[in-house]
Design brief:
Number of helices of chain B: 14
Helix content of chain A: over 70%
Number of strands of chain A: 2
Strand order of the largest sheet of chain B: 1-2
Distance between the termini of chain B: 13 Å
Number of strands of chain B: 2
Number of domains of chain A: 1
Structural class of chain B: mainly alpha
Helix content of chain B: over 70%
Oligomer: heterodimer
Largest interface: A-B, 40 and 40 residues
Radius of gyration of chain B: 19 Å
Strand content of chain B: under 5%
Order of helices and strands of chain B: HHHHHHEEHHHHHHHH
Radius of gyration of chain A: 19 Å
Structural class of chain A: mainly alpha
Largest sheet of chain B: 2 strands, antiparallel
C-alpha cells in the first residue's frame, strides 16, 4: 500500500515538474511583458516536432539531451523573430488585442507545422539508457519519468539562478516592475522583452521535446497543453513563478491519484481546481490583487 | 444624417430580400451552406455583443452552443417531435447554465474572464464527453430529427431543406432585430459605458456586475439558439461542439467581418464559411491561410472587412 502511494506521488511529481516547465515560460513572459501568449502550447508542440526531426535526421538517439537543448534554442530563435516582427507592434494596444494576436499565431504555427511535418502521428524513439524501467520500492517505475523529474529540477534551478543571481535577471525583474523607469536608467528594455520572450518560448520548446517523447505527437496537441498551462498559472497566480511551481506540483500529484482512483474525473480535474480557485481566491494562490 | 439612415435601412432590407429569394435558385449544397452561415452568424453576434459592446472576451461561447444543441437533440429524441418544446428547453437550459457560470465569471475582468469562461467550457466538454449514458459520450447523439413547426392548424415539416432554411432565416431576423434594439437602447449605452470604464460606470450608479451578467446571459442564450439550430441542421450533437476550437470560430468570424461594425459578424460568418468550403479544396492548408489573413487584419485593419468598407464609403452599416 505504502509503495503504491509512493509510486503515485513520484509519478505526480514528475508530471508536475513537467507541467511547471511548460507553464514557466508562459509565466515568465506574462510577468515581464504583461502578455499572455496563447500560442505557448503550440511552441511546446513545435519543440517536440523539432526533437523528433533531429532524431530522424541524425539517425541516432544517444545525444537525446543535446537534441532537447538544441530544439529549445531553435524555438527560442523563432521566438526572437516573432517578437521583433509581430509582438512589438502591439505592446501599446489593448490587452485583449494581444490575446487575439497570439490566438491567431496558433493558427499560423499549426498551419506551418502541417506543411512541414504533415498530419500523421509521430512517435519518438528513446535512447537505450532512458527506455525501460527501474525497480523502486519493489515496483517497476519507468526510467524516463525519473529523467523528466531530474532534468526539470535542473532547469528550474538554472531558471532561479538566472532570474535572481544574474544581472540580466535582476534587470528584467526591474523591467517587470516598471518598464519606463527601468528604461530611464539607460537599460534597453526592448532587448529585455525580446530576450524574455525568447526564453519563455525556448522553455516551451525544451519541455515539448522532453514531455512528448513518451506520447504520440500530433497536430493540435498544443491546444490541450495551453489549456493545462492556463489552469496552472491561474491556480498559482498570474506572473508568479513560485505559484506556478506549486500549482503544477499540486495538479501533477492530484492527477496522478486521480488516474489511479477515479480515472473518469481526472480529465476534468484541472478545470475543477481552476474554477474553485477563481471563486475562492480570484488572484490565485500567490498572485497579487489587481 | 437622416439620408444615411435610410440608406442603411435600404441595404438591410435588400439583404433580407436577397436572403429570402436567393435560396430558390440555390442547389441543395449551397442552401445548406447558406443555412449554416445564418446559424454561425447568430453565434458570432452572441460573441460580438459581449466583446464589442461590453468589452468582455469570452473564450467559452461553445459551452452554450453545445448545451443548446444537446438540449434540442435530447428533447427531439425522447420527448417531442414539434419544435416548440425542444427549443424552449434549449433556451431555458442555456439560460440556467449561463446564469451559474456567468454569476461566477463576471466578478473578474478581462484576461481572467477569458480564462474562466474557457475553463468552464472545457468542463462542459468533459461532462458531455464522459456522461455516456445521457449524452452518448464520444459518439454524441446521431440522427436528430428536425421536427415539425405547428402554428394553429398548420404543420410544416422542417425536414425539407427549404422549410428549415426559412425557419432559420426568420429566427435570424428576429434575433438580429432584437439585438439592434438592445444595442441602441439605454441598456446598450450603459453596457458601452462599462466597456469604456467599469469603475466610472459604477460611480455613476450602475450595478455593473448585474449589467454584465445580463449581457452575458443574452449572449449565451443567442449561442444556445444557434447551437439548437445547428444540431437540427446537421442532425447531430457531439462533444466537439463545446470544444474550445468551436469557441474560437465566432471570434475569428467576428474579427474577419469587423469588431466595430454591426454587420461585421454576419459578413464574417459569410466569408469564413464560404472561403473555408471553397478554398480548402484549392489551397489545402486552410488553417495557415486563415492565420495569415487574420494576422494582416489584426495588424493593419483592426476594423476587419466592414471597418475597411465603412471607412471607404463613409457609411455605418
Amino acid at each position: 500500500m505504502e509503495a503504491v502511494l509512493f509510486i503515485d506521488i513520484l509519478y505526480g511529481l514528475s508530471r508536475g515538474m513537467l507541467y511547471f516547465l511548460m507553464a514557466s515560460g508562459l509565466t515568465l513572459t506574462f510577468s515581464v511583458m504583461g502578455i499572455i501568449n496563447f500560442a505557448h502550447g503550440s511552441f511546446v508542440m513545435v519543440g517536440a516536432y523539432i526533437t523528433w526531426s533531429l532524431i530522424q535526421w541524425t539517425g541516432v538517439t544517444w545525444p537525446f539531451i543535446a537534441f532537447l537543448i538544441l530544439s529549445g534554442i531553435i524555438v527560442g530563435v523563432i521566438g526572437v523573430w516573432i517578437e521583433i516582427f509581430l509582438l512589438r507592434r502591439i505592446y501599446k494596444a489593448e490587452q485583449l488585442y494581444q490575446l487575439l494576436l497570439t490566438f491567431v499565431l496558433i493558427l499560423i504555427i499549426d498551419g506551418l507545422a502541417l506543411e512541414i511535418w504533415g498530419g500523421s502521428f509521430r512517435s519518438m524513439v528513446l535512447p537505450r539508457y532512458l527506455a525501460g524501467g527501474v525497480s523502486i520500492a519493489g515496483r517497476p517505475f519507468p526510467k524516463y519519468f525519473l529523467f523528466i523529474l531530474f532534468s526539470s529540477i535542473c532547469i528550474a534551478i538554472i531558471l532561479w539562478v538566472f532570474l535572481y543571481k544574474t544581472k540580466f535577471g535582476k534587470v528584467s525583474r526591474a523591467a517587470a516592475m516598471d518598464a519606463e523607469i527601468t528604461s530611464t536608467l539607460g537599460i534597453n528594455v526592448s532587448l529585455i522583452y525580446c530576450g524574455m520572450f525568447a526564453m519563455g518560448v525556448a522553455l516551451a520548446g525544451f519541455s515539448g521535446g522532453l514531455g512528448l517523447a513518451m506520447s504520440c505527437l500530433s497536430l493540435g496537441i498544443g491546444a490541450n497543453i495551453i489549456v493545462i498551462c492556463f489552469a496552472i498559472i491561474v491556480i498559482g497566480g498570474m506572473g508568479s513563478l513560485k505559484g506556478s511551481l506549486i500549482a503544477s506540483l499540486i495538479l501533477g500529484v492530484f492527477e496522478s491519484f486521480g488516474d489511479h482512483y477515479f480515472p473518469k474525473l481526472a480529465m476534468a480535474l484541472p478545470f475543477i481546481l481552476m474554477s474553485l480557485i477563481l471563486i475562492i481566491r480570484p488572484q490565485g494562490l500567490f498572485g497579487e490583487k489587481e | 444624417m437622416n439620408h444615411k439612415k435610410w440608406q442603411v435601412l435600404a441595404i438591410y432590407i435588400f439583404v433580407i430580400i436577397l436572403l429570402s429569394v436567393f435560396p430558390i435558385i440555390l442547389p441543395s449544397f449551397g442552401l445548406y451552406l447558406l443555412n449554416e452561415i445564418l446559424i454561425y452568424a447568430i453565434f458570432s453576434y452572441a460573441f460580438y455583443f459581449l466583446f464589442s459592446h461590453v468589452g468582455y472576451l469570452s473564450f467559452g461561447q461553445a459551452a452554450y452552443f453545445a448545451v443548446g444543441a444537446y438540449s434540442v437533440a435530447l428533447m427531439y429524441k425522447h420527448v417531442s417531435s414539434t419544435i416548440w418544446l425542444p427549443f424552449l428547453t434549449a433556451i431555458t437550459v442555456t439560460f440556467i447554465v449561463a446564469f451559474i457560470i456567468g454569476y461566477l465569471s463576471v466578478r473578474v475582468t478581462k484576461v481572467y474572464f477569458a480564462f474562466l469562461t474557457l475553463a468552464f467550457a472545457q468542463m462542459i466538454y468533459t461532462i458531455l464527453f464522459l456522461w455516456q449514458s445521457f449524452t452518448g459520450g464520444d459518439d454524441g447523439i446521431p440522427n436528430v430529427p428536425r421536427g415539425y413547426l405547428n402554428i394553429y392548424f398548420m404543420k410544416i415539416n422542417l425536414e425539407s431543406a427549404h422549410n428549415f432554411y426559412y425557419f432559420t432565416l426568420i429566427i435570424f431576423a428576429i434575433l438580429i432585430f432584437i439585438l439592434r434594439k438592445l444595442i441602441t437602447s439605454y441598456f446598450g449605452l450603459a453596457l458601452r459605458s462599462i466597456r469604456e470604464n467599469i469603475e466610472r460606470a459604477s460611480f455613476v450608479g450602475f450595478n455593473t456586475h448585474r449589467y454584465v451578467l445580463i449581457a452575458f446571459i443574452i449572449s449565451a442564450v443567442y449561442s444556445g439558439i444557434a447551437g439548437a439550430l445547428q444540431a437540427s441542421l446537421a442532425k447531430m450533437a457531439y462533444p466537439e461542439l463545446s470544444y474550445w476550437s468551436t469557441s474560437g470560430e465566432p471570434i475569428l468570424m467576428t474579427l474577419i467581418g469587423g469588431i466595430y461594425s454591426f454587420s461585421g459578424p454576419f459578413i464574417g460568418a459569410l466569408l469564413y464559411i464560404f472561403l473555408k468550403t471553397y478554398l480548402m479544396a484549392i489551397i489545402g492548408n486552410w488553417v495557415l491561410f486563415l492565420g495569415i489573413v487574420l494576422l494582416i487584419l489584426l495588424l493593419f485593419f483592426r476594423g476587419g472587412v466592414m471597418g475597411f468598407f465603412e471607412q471607404k464609403f463613409g457609411i455605418e452599416l
